[in-house]
Design goal:
The complex is a heterodimer. Chain A is an alpha+beta fold. Chain A is built from two helices and five strands, in the order E-E-E-H-E-E-H. Chain B has four domains: 105 residues, Alpha-Beta Complex (Sulfite Reductase Hemoprotein, domain 2), CATH 3.90.480.20; 158 residues, Sulfite Reductase Hemoprotein, domain 1; 94 residues, Sulfite Reductase Hemoprotein, domain 2 (Alpha-Beta Complex); 139 residues, Sulfite Reductase Hemoprotein, domain 1 (2-Layer Sandwich), CATH 3.30.413.10. Chain B is 37% helix and 17% strand. In chain B, the strands form four sheets. In chain B, strands 16, 17, 18, 19, 20 and 21 form a six-stranded mixed β-sheet that branches. A five-stranded antiparallel β-sheet of chain B has the order 1-2-5-4-13. In chain B, strands 3-14-15-12-11 form a five-stranded antiparallel β-sheet. Classes of the chains: A alpha+beta, B alpha+beta.
Chain lengths: 104, 563
């Protein structure tokens, strides 16, 4: 089955206040650093509610906002924009290692 | 022989008790602000300007701490501390930037005050690395050592630093403000593309003063600065700067973020009107408190007294023997070693651009290794270049083989300074919240493609500069080949320009070649540009010289036929 790329699916994301780590709001109203656990809204009204909820739970995070995602048939979520994919997956190259002496 | 002194005199400005108190108080102030933010006593809206004032940004994945390296000068002790902080509070590496600063990309908010407190131990801070204020003043990275230097520009950078630090009138300018100073006729500080560029030169009477260049800049609207004053007496520098900043503060636009830099003001009212306004303001202040007493200038100058280097033979048998037996060393001597004003010495550039590496990144271990080399062979001194490399300013010629060997062990002996793989690149979309496209992976692919040193040296001097958005932190407008990442309907595209330059007297904004190309075509496009140059060059011509002679059309035709 093709991915749902309509942009109707959304999750709420933010950066954690204490360390800036990327987080998403889960169904229990907790902030998680795993996109797979994010609560997904599937239509516009639900997205509004999700964002309101994210803001209500915003004490430990910075400026929550909605992120459009796709969902595979097995439920795997992937942000539609490259920026959000990078936020979810990390750097797209190998950062230099802390103890690196020579770059391979 | 290597100098292994554990303690050595410092040949640049040392904090006095005023500096130390100011920085220490600022750290404790920020510590309390962080505590209040974490306790919920401050909202993000209230806190954001406070953290930015202390160099703490929020990027895609984490907070980023931008540490000021004043005029790009570092002691080995300071570099070791940066390595230590990166290991203790970050992920053990840092990114040297096009503004001669260091960015740590994974700092925790709760750790930031401790990191700043440790920085203060070595007379460093992160103030004014963000916000609409006068930013860290940048300088020629060969300052204090260059053979063509008239005067050490860092003396004036330091005077400007002291004047501009927490200057109450210029803390909320219309937009950020960047000043660069060079003391050499061969500009290595890109002074014509700064808000204010200052060039020290000697007039016919033998006096040294400043050419004052105002209204340059890159970003969304690239502009080459206009000369407001051909010759400004040195002691009048602060009064003239204050007059210029006042005019900007009064007339600079605050209604439109994209039109707020001084370059737009100069462009809109014209250089002549700008000069009139500045001179009128200056007339009322030139003989006031900002006129620098000779003893003040002398006191700062003394702090930058150069190290006493014994005159040595200009040729070393050891170096010449290795030059003949080791082709890579011979290439390194050509590209990474520059003449020093003291015979028998040289300026050495450690390339932070080994093949395929993120430009400007160094691990904690590498930083410590560089500090060790500086202690052993360069009077414990270093410079950061805006081209994202590290410089050893004072190396004895006879020590070059050992420096090369030590750098090779760190991965920093690539003989590519000024060559096609000595790429400037901003952090791009992998880190930056403002970026539209990635920069580092593009730089890595180009670097790997052109990794062979023989070909790089055959191509000759060719500067590629890559920015991940129009803010142009990667200086793409002034790259011989400039690459600008853009987002078009969610797809990364890269706009190519050719013919940009920042060599003094030749400063030029590159010509956009045509439609942007997809990420997978960038290397092919750059390869085609290089081949077009190789097919058309005359003897002795660099890439940019050939471009100036034949224009953009031949490059354009070949690139778009190829991609």
């Amino acid at each position: 089955m093709a991915k749902n790329l309509s942009g109707d699916l959304q999750v709420a994301s933010a950066n954690r206040l204490v360390d800036g780590v990327v987080v998403w709001l889960d169904d229990a109203g907790q902030w998680t650093d795993r996109l797979a656990r994010a609560a997904v809204s599937r239509e516009a009204r639900a997205s509004e509610i999700l964002l309101e909820r994210a803001r209500a739970e915003g004490f430990g995070v910075i400026e929550p906002y909605l992120v459009a995602v796709s969902e595979d048939e097995d439920g795997t979520l992937e942000p539609l924009s490259l920026r959000e994919r990078i936020r979810a997956s990390g750097l797209t190259f190998d950062a230099i290692a802390a103890d690196a002496v020579r770059y391979a | 022989m290597p100098d292994t002194l554990l303690y050595r005199p410092q040949h640049f400005y040392r904090y006095d008790s005023y500096d130390r108190t100011l920085v220490a108080e600022r750290v404790e102030q920020f510590r309390d602000q962080v505590r209040r933010r974490l306790a919920g006593e401050l909202t993000e809206e209230q806190f954001k300007p406070l953290r930015l004032t202390n160099g703490l940004y929020l990027q895609l994945h984490a907070y980023m701490l931008r540490i000021a390296v004043p005029y790009g000068t570092l002691s080995s002790r300071q570099l070791r501390k940066l390595a230590d902080i990166s290991r203790k509070y970050d992920r053990g590496y840092g990114h040297f930037t096009t503004r001669q600063n260091l960015q740590l990309n994974w700092i925790k908010l709760e750790d930031a005050p401790d990191a700043l407190a440790e920085l203060a131990e070595v007379d460093m801070h992160a103030m004014q690395t963000s916000g609409n204020c006068i930013r860290n003043v940048t300088a020629d990275h060969y300052a204090g050592a260059a053979i063509d230097e008239i005067e050490d520009p860092r003396i004036w950078c330091e005077i400007v630093r002291q004047w501009s630090t927490l200057h109450p009138e210029f803390t909320f300018l219309p937009r950020k403000f960047k000043i660069a100073i060079t003391g050499s006729p061969n500009d290595r500080a890109a002074v014509r593309v700064h808000d204010i560029g200052l060039r020290l030169w000697r007039n016919e009477a033998g006096e040294v003063g400043f050419e004052v260049i105002v209204g340059g800049g890159l970003g969304r609207t690239p502009m080459i600065g206009k000369t407001l004053r051909e010759f400004l007496p040195k002691e009048e520098l602060l009064a003239y700067l204050e007059a210029t900043l006042r005019v900007y503060n009064r007339y600079g636009r605050r209604d439109n973020l994209y039109k707020a830099r001084i370059k737009i003001l100069v462009h809109e009212i014209g250089a002549e009107k700008m000069r009139e306004e500045v001179e009128a303001e200056y007339a009322s202040t030139r003989d006031g408190a900002l006129k620098l007493p000779a003893e003040t200038i002398e006191a700062i100058t003394q702090q930058f007294a150069p190290p006493v280097l014994p005159v040595r033979p200009p040729v070393s048998g050891l170096v010449e023997a290795q030059r003949l037996s080791d082709p890579d060393f011979a290439l390194w001597l050509k590209s990474n070693v520059a003449p020093h004003r003291v015979p028998g010495h040289a300026i050495v550039t450690a390339s932070l651009k080994p093949a395929g590496a993120p430009p400007g990144d160094a691990s904690a271990v590498q930083m410590e290794g560089v500090a060790d080399i500086a202690d052993a062979y360069s009077q414990g001194e270093l410079r950061v270049s805006h081209e994202q490399n590290l410089i050893f300013p004072h190396v004895a010629i006879e020590d070059l083989p050992q420096v090369y060997k030590s750098l090779a062990a760190l991965g920093f002996a690539e003989a590519n300074v000024g060559k096609i793989t000595d790429i400037i690149a901003c952090p791009g979309l992998d880190y930056c919240a403002l970026a539209n496209a990635r920069s580092i992976p593009v730089a890595q692919r180009i670097s790997n493609h052109f990794a062979g040193l023989a070909r790089q040296h055959d191509i000759g001097d060719l500067k590629i500069k890559i920015s991940g958005c129009i803010n142009a932190c990667g200086h793409h407008h002034v790259g011989h080949i400039g690459i600008l990442g853009v987002d078009k309907n969610g797809v990364e595209l890269y706009q190519l320009s050719v013919g940009g330059d920042v060599d003094f007297g030749q400063t030029a904004i590159g010509t956009i070649l045509g439609p942007a190309v997809t990420a997978d075509k960038v290397v092919e496009a750059v390869d085609t540009l290089v081949n077009t140059y190789l097919d058309n060059r005359s003897t002795g011509e660099r890439f940019v010289d050939t471009f100036r002679r034949i224009g953009a059309q031949p490059f354009k035709e070949r690139v778009y036929a190829a991609v």
